[in-house]
Write a structure and sequence with these properties.
heterodimer, A: alpha/beta, Rossmann fold, six-stranded mixed beta sheet, B: 292 residues, mainly alpha, ABC transporter involved in vitamin B12 uptake, BtuC, two-stranded antiparallel sheet, globular
Chain lengths: 234, 292
């Protein structure tokens, strides 16, 4: 589904990504883990085009999208949930959701929005309230629901567990796992919380200082004691 | 009592014009966090375009339409050509550039249309209406001004509140990056915001001019009062701009009528200071304070 080849991204003289290559197949969750400053968020931002790649390429279903503008990505089937719960706080919950299906003209959005409300009952009772009234967990539910309304083939998730209660994290992770298994969605998950990310992922990619230091089956990575101590801290 | 009624009516009408102009500033501030000081001069320029058409024998309404369309186009061009290149720098750069727009349009108008005072025709009568025995200090032209502003506001609010385009405009204003990730063409939305502000400004400009006088600086006072009205309302709320404009229109008219016309500007300043002391975000700020 997604193929990243030798991707380089820089912030001034700093190489945030230093030749990163990875693959995200359909129907699988690929987790990118690593410490703060490893380049995880930059990786997602470069894939979706928020950050311009210095060199290397990004292929979505075989098509080169390295230079495609961000606004096009959702139409190509990519949904990116940014770090820090990208709700638009001034808009209502319903309006936030509606934005998710913006480009899908003619789709039965109302029906699908009901589906999201069913999945997350805590959003249901507050449809007309502005999103800044939501808690951190509810915001995460809202952005995940919104991303799914775009009917993506590839979902980029940036630190969905950040600052959330373990129960909420497990609810969201289970929902995504279930969706991947049912619909063949490809997920590129970026997480600092390596333990829970590897628990739901199929493949793990360890990133350190902008370079891939290990790519392996998620279970194998979680079991590799040396690697865990060196890069993952658990 | 009669004086009170008359002053109130005049205040409401004046307030409507302030509100219309405040809305243009809010439209732009919401989208780009910039105060467009060129707005009044842009509007003045389009009023001159309308006046030229009327002098050539075209009808008031055709000229009216031409002013709105040219306001829309000028707004879009100013954003794309003049403001966009400086937008990535500090906000003060863009604000200074809009001051340049202000000066340029006034100079251009003086060159093209002459630096003299010209009268602008009114589409409706300028004589007061009588209700029974009482003469009311409101003319059919005043009613036209009020109704035109109200219609424009309803259209604007409907667009923003109930259409997909309006939702995209708001998303682009409040969460640029998220909006782009969701497929909103933010750059187009910003241009559209400036264009709509240009259109609204032209409406305010032509309403003020109708039945009155135009000269290259005739919008300057409105810019100041419209700005105060917008700040009163919180700078990013449409409702706030309307309320702010109405309050300002009423207070300044009462001050002029009961106290002294020369105190009007001071009264506006006093309201501004009072409101900002009590509620620093303005009366209706919808923006959520962001934690850093």
């Amino acid at each position: 589904m997604l193929e990243v080849r030798e991707l380089v991204a820089t912030y001034g003289p700093v190489k945030a990504l230093d030749g990163v290559s990875l693959e995200v197949p359909a129907g699988k969750i690929t987790a990118v883990i690593g410490a703060n400053g490893a380049g995880k968020t930059t990786l997602l931002r470069t894939v979706s085009g928020l950050v311009q790649a210095r060199s290397g390429s990004v292929l979505l279903e075989g098509a080169d999208i390295t230079k495609t503008p961000v606004e096009e990505m959702v139409r190509r089937g990519m949904a990116h949930v940014p770090e820090g719960r990208g709700v638009i706080a001034e808009l209502t919950i319903e309006e936030n959701l509606r934005l998710g299906g913006l480009w899908r003209k003619g789709a039965d959005l109302e029906q699908e929005m009901e589906g999201v409300y069913e999945q997350f009952p805590s959003l249901d009772s507050r449809r007309k309230r502005t999103a800044h009234t939501l808690s951190g967990g509810e915001r995460q539910m809202l952005v995940v629901g919104r991303a799914l309304l775009a009917k993506p083939k590839l979902l980029l998730l940036d630190e969905p567990s950040l600052g959330l209660a373990p129960l909420v994290v497990s609810q969201i992770f289970h929902l995504i796992r279930d969706l991947v298994d049912r619909t063949g969605l490809a997920v590129l998950l970026v997480e600092q919380n390596a333990k829970s990310a590897l628990a739901i992922a199929d493949t793990g990619v360890v990133l350190n200082l902008g370079k891939v230091v290990a790519t392996d089956d998620a279970k194998a990575l979680a079991g590799d004691e040396q690697l865990r101590h060196a890069y993952l801290g658990f | 009592m009669q004086q009170f009624v008359n002053l109130t009516l005049n205040g409401v009408i004046l307030g409507a014009v302030y509100a219309a102009f405040a809305l243009t500033l809010v439209l732009i501030f919401r989208a780009t966090r910039i105060i467009n000081f060129g707005q009044g001069a842009q509007a003045m320029f389009t009023t001159y375009i309308a006046l030229t058409l009327i002098e050539r024998g075209f009808s008031y309404w055709l000229a009216f339409l031409a002013a709105l369309v040219s306001g829309f186009v000028i707004g879009a061009v100013v954003e794309r050509v003049i403001v966009r290149p400086v937008e990535t720098g500090p906000e003060i750069n863009a604000v200074i550039v809009t001051l340049g727009v202000f000066v340029s349009f006034i100079a251009l108008a003086a060159i093209l249309f002459g630096n003299t005072v010209q009268s602008f025709p009114a589409p409706f009568a300028l004589r007061g209406i009588s209700v029974g025995e009482v003469n009311v200090a409101i003319t059919p032209n005043d009613i036209y001004r009020l109704v035109a502003v109200l219609i424009a506001m309803v259209l604007l609010l409907t667009l923003f509140r109930f259409t997909s385009l309006g939702l995209q405009l708001r998303a682009a204003a409040f969460g640029q990056e998220v909006a782009r990730l969701l497929g909103v063409r933010v750059s187009r939305m910003l241009t559209l915001g400036w264009a709509m502000a240009g259109l609204f400004g032209s409406l305010a400009g032509i309403l003020i001019a109708s039945g009155s006088l135009v000269f290259p600086n005739y919008m300057d006072g409105i810019v100041v009062f419209g700005f105060v009205a917008a700040v009163l309302g919180g700078l990013d709320s449409f409702i706030g701009a309307v309320v702010g404009g109405t309050v300002l229109g009423l207070v300044t008219t009462y001050v002029a009528g009961y106290v002294d016309a020369s105190l009007v500007t001071l009264a506006a300043l006093a309201i501004l200071v009072t409101v900002l002391l009590l509620k620093p975000g303005g009366l209706f700020s919808s923006s959520v304070a962001r934690k850093v």
